[in-house]
From TrEMBL, chain A:
EC primary class: translocase
Keywords tagged on the record: ATP synthesis, ATP-binding, Hydrogen ion transport, Ion transport, Nucleotide-binding, Translocase, Transport
Matching Gene3D superfamilies: 2.40.30.20, 2.40.50.100, Bovine Mitochondrial F1-atpase, Atp Synthase Beta Chain, Chain D, domain 3, P-loop containing nucleotide triphosphate hydrolases
Protein name: V-type ATP synthase alpha chain
Lineage: Bacteria, Pseudomonadati, Spirochaetota, Spirochaetia, Spirochaetales
Molecular function GO terms recorded: ATP binding; proton-transporting ATP synthase activity, rotational mechanism; proton-transporting ATPase activity, rotational mechanism
Top-level division of the source organism's lineage: Bacteria
Pfam families referenced in this protein's UniProt entry, alphabetically: ATP-synt_ab (PF00006), ATP-synt_ab_N (PF02874), ATP-synt_ab_Xtn (PF16886), ATP-synt_VA_C (PF22919)
Functional summary from the UniProt entry: Produces ATP from ADP in the presence of a proton gradient across the membrane. The V-type alpha chain is a catalytic subunit.
Length: 591, 470
């Protein structure tokens, strides 16, 4: 299929111009020069074309030959994806290490998944059955927590009949496991591996409403700014505000079935951290290692910029593939700003007319298209699955008015703004309760009511209201000091401080605190609201704030996140009794 | 490299072109050449026979754009000869380069013998495979409390110093280079320093040479100096040359290399200058859109690799223009590096050395490099508590400036006292003071004991029991 499509006429960074172009296609995968550097056709103009190359273009010179593959840049989809680490164009980094050592040489390649390994395949349909694209032919236990469903490739049109299917057994992914005949009478040999172009969303039957939250175990997110399964959220913050920490925490503890973690133009050591840490962490829901549900895409900041641009698409395509099997997939894209900057760099090299801050005018279109690949879907095979996107944004100078943050805001419905001043005080996760929002909250309300009871939302609203009142009071405090306020108002400050320290702040490193079940969150919030109600009453009866503050039962509240594990909820009841009694005693002493 | 056969390429690479079409600043345009590779090394020989080096920035059938690393002064169009070398800029590296002084392109300037290279390496380096990296978690004791205690430096980390003009970043860098040691190593580790100066004044370079000499480490230091009066383009090569040697020392010679790069602001200025000259589309403040990727190519060369003993730890130093941390240079640096040590001018004005701003400084790798078995079990909580308390101090100070110190609550007055001692005793130390981590932690506890126990919410009861007020 490979054919000569032209010759290099100019090289400038990752952008290569070619001339004498024959029949190159837009977005076609190409190989350039003797090192066979991978590239993609991004512009066609008469007999010239522009290619962006995914590896260093050092040494390329005019006259070098360019070969076209006849297909767009695609990912290989087959059992064996989970637990792997890939670069931005799905080259397996561990296999590349074996091939070229610790440093990434050019022109090396390896199949994305092993063609040697044998998988245990069990058919789930019989010969003679009619199938359509996306239908499940059989299953393979990919890891101990994920069953990989082998599906009819989406390239098949219309109905097809299964002529033969392999019985249960051990097969390599390249083995033909089924032969089907389509409506035109053409026969297709199906293996366990299929390809899909990264820039084209995989089709679905229809979109479903977003009604179920993605539980992250992070209190500030679950209670204040919840995310729906199938939703999209932006996570902006200046450097050092804890974007990566928050992404890691969500990747570790959220209740998705599959995690695709895209390190897009970020630090190499962070990916190593994930690679080291995840295999040893246990998923609280399945009891299995977290690595058994995780796929990593690592295109670090020093790796070629065009592969960085491709990395988010590679990630989202793999996510959609697992969604088609009926799984809930969460994507961490860290960071979408680096992706946008890669677009800017390539656009600049192609001498396109820039819009804001040098970004190309198509930036919002690309951002919108990416986030729209999130969703809760009714798949072609009638299963339901979702892709949730959590996109980190790194605004220059922490200024949220810059183009990437602003355009992202238009296409996501939740916004977890990270606050530098919270991070400076080492308050993590540093999600600001003033600037953040979640439009999913009202959609998810019925779910909360059904699963957690009405108190959960009621208590949550009380706390949100108090935080807003505190914000206003702080303005006054800045002018006159807290002592000038009446005790009733000082108590608002006190309760909010408590809420921030005891509830919103959560340690990612403490084994008890790193993950809170919804039940624990509800209990904690209930106790804090109880403290607010009873304390307020006591103050009305003339009890001094300072004596409430010094109560042992109140001080215990601050530490409850650390002292009470998810499976010790009964301890909260004891704590509740102690708190009620202690405050009642104070009131009695005062009378 | 390209599809031209090697023999043919050899012949071509010996070919010289006489005459260039245009010169603009450091850029030369040459027309009608054979196929020239992108980033190929170029030798440019002027009419008097002096050789200057450059590389190819843009290549096409019609015209090749060459950037000279050296000044273009004195070149003329018809008589200048150009030779394309068929390969990118290489550096001959050797362990014997330690103890020597080089110019910004890696040529000896100390009058010593020529370097006999054991290996020729492309100065642009190759990206480390993330799957081959070893996650850094060995604590480096710098002897400076505000770094060891609050923003711990880890072997294999890239931790820049964000400073401003007139602040003592040179002294701090020199002090770190002198005092840095690894606690709990097996004693066989070999240390060395690779020092890259970009556009700094010659007396600053001399200061470093002198300090290294006085502390007796000069024989373990390789200095690459591209001084303020050297051509600005040379600066874009200097850190690459220095890091290429560092990679050789770390991954071929098993050494622990500390790379100090000063001043990254000058490096970025040079990039902007070249970019503007090529009329590229600028992004923020005229800096090129690829500034992030370019800086990442340097910073990401820090790290450790599986199966190799050595490591590269980077301390890039940059002066923030107008002390503005949101300026593109510190901003992009902060997004790539694993934390930052930020200097604060008000502390400096109060005579506090080193003037490290505790709140905006950060070490991202600290979390895995401290605690039980590494430094001490209470270290993570202690540093979190110091951060939280000091951050509250800042709030109290703001309040005090409005309502007056006398009106503060007793608790807030305690915090004021804590803040004062924290700056005067914990942050401040002398240039020669080398504190062990135990001393630093003890000092932290001594200061926290100024606050009532109930305020220490980040620490566990047991830790408070063991160390509070002791």
């Amino acid at each position: 299929m490979e054919r000569l499509i032209g010759r290099v006429s100019r090289v400038t960074g990752p952008v290569v111009y070619i001339s004498d172009v024959s029949d190159a296609m837009m977005m076609e995968l190409v190989h350039v020069g003797r090192d066979r550097i991978i590239g993609e056709v991004v512009k066609l103009d008469g007999s010239t074309a522009v290619i962006q190359v995914y590896e260093s273009s050092v040494g390329l010179s005019p006259g070098d030959e360019v070969f076209g593959e006849g297909m767009p840049l695609s990912v290989e989809l087959a059992p064996g994806l989970i637990g792997s680490i890939y670069d931005g164009i799905q080259r397996p980094l561990q296999a590349l290490e074996a091939a070229s050592g610790a440093f990434m040489d050019r022109g090396i390649s390896a199949p994305a998944v092993s063609y040697e390994k044998e998988w245990s395949f069990t058919p789930s349909i019989e010969e003679g059955v009619e199938v359509i694209a996306g239908m499940i032919l059989g299953e393979v236990p990919e890891t101990s927590s994920v069953i990989h469903h082998i599906m009819v490739p989406l390239q098949i049109r219309g109905k097809a009949t299964v002529l033969s299917i392999k019985p249960a057994g051990q097969y390599k992914i390249s083995t033909v496991i089924a032969i089907i005949q389509d409506e035109q009478g053409q026969q297709h040999e199906l293996t366990m591996v299929q390809r899909w172009s990264i820039r084209q969303p995989r089709p679905v039957e229809r979109r479903l409403p977003l009604e179920v939250p993605l539980i992250t175990g992070q209190r500030v997110i679950d209670t204040l700014f919840p995310l729906a399964k199938g939703g999209a959220v932006a996570l902006p913050g200046p450097f050092g505000a804890g974007k990566t920490m928050t992404q890691h925490a969500v990747a570790k503890w959220c209740d998705a079935d599959i995690i695709v973690y895209i390190g897009c133009g970020e630090r190499g050591n962070e990916m190593t951290d994930v690679l080291n840490e995840f295999p040893h962490l246990i998923d609280p829901r399945t009891g299995k290692s977290l690595m058994e549900r995780t796929i990593l895409i690592a295109n670090t900041s020093n790796m070629p910029v065009s592969a960085r641009e491709a990395s988010v698409y590679t990630g989202v395509t793999i996510a959609e593939y697992y969604r088609d099997m009926g799984y809930h997939v969460a994507i961490m894209a860290d960071s979408t700003s680096r992706w946008a900057e890669a677009m800017r760099e390539l656009s600049g090299r192609m001498e396109e007319m820039p819009a804001e801050e040098g970004f190309p005018a198509y930036l919002p279109t690309r951002i919108a298209a990416f986030y729209e690949r999130a969703g809760m879907m009714q798949n072609l095979n009638h299963t339901q699955g979702s892709v949730t996107i959590i996109g980190a944004v790194s605004p220059p100078g922490g200024d949220f008015s810059e183009p990437v943050t602003q355009h992202t805001k238009r296409f996501v419905r939740a916004f977890w703004a990270l606050d530098r001043s919270l991070a400076y005080a080492r308050h993590f996760p540093s999600v600001s309760w003033i600037d953040s929002y979640s439009e999913y909250s009202p959609d998810l309300e019925p779910w909360w009511h059904e699963k957690m009871g009405e108190d959960f939302t009621k208590n949550r609203n009380i706390m949100v209201d108090l935080l807003l009142r505190e914000e206003k009071l702080q303005q006054v405090v800045k002018l006159v000091g807290p002592d000038a306020l009446p005790e009733s108002q000082q108590f608002i400050l006190e309760v909010c401080t408590m809420f921030k320290n005891a509830f919103l702040q959560q340690s990612a490193f403490d084994t008890v605190d790193q993950y809170s079940t919804l039940e624990k969150q509800a209990k904690m919030m209930y106790l804090l609201v109880l403290y607010w109600n009873n304390g307020r009453q006591a103050i009305r009866k003339g009890v001094h704030l300072s004596s409430i503050r010094q109560l042992e039962a109140v001080r215990a509240l601050v530490r409850m996140k650390l002292t009470i594990a998810n499976d010790q909820l009964a301890l909260f009841d004891t704590m509740e009794q102690e708190l009620i009694q202690a405050i009642t005693k104070l009131e009695a002493r005062n009378e | 490299m390209s599809s031209i056969p090697t023999t043919e390429k050899d012949i071509l690479s010996k070919r010289e072109y006489v005459g260039i079409s245009a010169i603009n600043g450091p850029l030369m345009y040459i027309k009608n050449t054979h196929s020239i590779g992108y980033q190929e090394l170029v030798e440019c020989i002027d009419k008097d026979g002096n050789v200057r080096l450059g590389n190819v920035l843009d290549t096409s059938k019609d015209v090749v754009v060459v950037q000279l690393f050296e000044s273009t002064t004195g070149l003329n169009l018809p008589q200048t000869r150009v030779k394309f070398k068929g390969q990118p800029l290489m550096l001959g590296v050797s362990e014997t380069m330690l103890g020597r002084v080089f110019d910004g392109l890696g040529r000896p300037t100390d009058g010593g013998a020529d370097i006999i290279a054991t290996k020729e390496l492309n100065v642009n380096g190759l990206a480390m495979n993330p799957a081959s990296r070893l996650y850094p978690k060995n604590f480096i004791q710098t002897g400076i409390s505000s770094i060891d205690g609050m923003n711990t430096l880890i072997r294999g980390q890239k931790l820049p110093i964000f400073s401003g003009n007139g602040m003592p970043h040179e002294r701090l860098a020199a002090q770190i280079a002198r005092q840095a040691k690894i606690t709990g190593g097996d004693g066989t580790e070999e240390f060395c320093v690779v020092f890259a100066a970009m556009g700094v004044k010659s007396d600053v370079a001399q200061y470093f040479t002198k300090t290294f000499e006085e502390s007796g480490v000069l024989s373990n230091v390789a200095l690459f100096l591209s001084l303020a009066d050297d051509p600005s383009v040379e600066r874009t090569i200097t850190p690459r040359v220095a890091l290429t040697l560092a990679e050789h020392l770390a991954f071929d010679c098993d050494k622990h290399v500390l790379v100090i790069m000063i001043d990254m602001a000058n490096y970025c200025e040079s990039l902007r200058e070249i970019s503007t000259m090529r009329s590229e589309i600028p992004s923020r403040k005229g800096y090129p859109g690829y500034l992030y990727s370019d800086l990442a190519e340097l910073y990401e060369r820090a790290g450790m690799l599986k199966g190799r003993k050595g490591s590269i730890t980077q301390i890039p130093i940059l002066t923030m223009p107008n002390d503005d941390i949101s300026h593109p240079i510190p901003d992009l640096t902060g997004y790539i590096t694993e934390g930052q040590i930020v200097f604060e001018r008000t502390l400096h004005a109060q005579g506090v050395y080193p003037p490290i701003a505790s709140l905006s400084s950060l070490s991202r790798l600290m979390k895995d490099g401290i605690g039980e078995g590494l430094t001490r079990a209470d270290h993570p909580h202690l540093s979190a508590q110091l951060f939280a308390a000091y951050s509250y101090v800042k709030e109290v100070r703001n309040l005090a400036s409005v309502i007056g110190e006398d009106e503060l609550t007793d608790l807030d007055k305690d915090y004021m006292a804590f803040g004062e001692s924290f700056e005067k005793e914990f942050i401040a130390q002398s240039f020669t003071e080398d504190r062990t981590i135990t001393e630093t932690l003890a000092l932290g506890w001594k200061l926290l004991s100024l606050l009532p126990k109930e305020e220490l919410t980040r620490l566990t009861e047991e830790e408070i029991e063991e160390y509070y007020g002791k």
